[in-house]
Write a structure and sequence with these properties.
elongated, 131 residues, single chain, mainly alpha
Length: 131
C-alpha cells in the first residue's frame, strides 16, 4: 500500500470581532491608487477632449459614473452583491475606460502602462480575496 501523507485538520480561523475589518495590505493601497488614477484620468479626458459646453458635462460626468458603478459593484461595501467574476469584470471595465481615454488623448504609452499595472493589481488582489 502506498504511503499516504499525514494530514492534520486545522481549526477554522477565528471570526473577527463585530465592527472590525481585516488589516489593510499594501496591495489594497495600490488598488486604491489605481482607482484614483482611473478617476482622475476620466476627469482629465472629459475636460480636455470635448468642446466648451460638453467638456464640463463629460469632465464631471465620466468620473461620477465610474464612481457610481464602482460603489455599486466593486467597493468593499458594495450596494449590490455580485459574483466575484462580475465584480472583476466591472473593475476591468473602469480600468479599460481609463486606458482608452489615455489612448484617445494621444498618450498610448501611459494607457498601456496603466492598463498593465491595473490588471496585474486587480488579478493579484482578486486572487487574494478568493483564497
Amino acid at each position: 500500500m502506498a504511503e499516504l501523507p499525514h494530514v492534520r485538520p486545522e481549526a477554522p480561523a477565528e471570526p473577527l470581532p463585530a465592527g472590525t475589518r481585516p488589516p489593510l495590505h499594501a496591495l489594497d493601497l495600490l488598488a486604491f491608487v489605481c482607482e484614483l488614477f482611473a478617476l482622475a484620468t476620466l476627469a482629465l479626458w472629459g475636460f480636455t477632449a470635448w468642446a466648451l459646453p460638453w467638456n464640463i458635462v463629460f469632465g464631471i460626468g465620466a468620473p461620477v459614473v465610474a464612481i457610481l458603478v464602482w460603489a455599486l459593484f466593486v467597493s468593499p461595501r458594495a450596494v449590490v452583491a455580485v459574483h466575484p467574476f462580475v465584480r472583476a469584470l466591472v473593475e476591468l471595465l473602469v480600468y479599460a475606460s481609463a486606458t482608452i481615454a489615455w489612448w484617445s488623448m494621444g498618450n498610448a504609452a501611459i494607457g498601456i502602462v496603466f492598463g498593465i499595472v491595473a490588471v496585474a493589481v486587480g488579478v493579484i488582489s482578486g486572487r487574494r480575496r478568493l483564497a
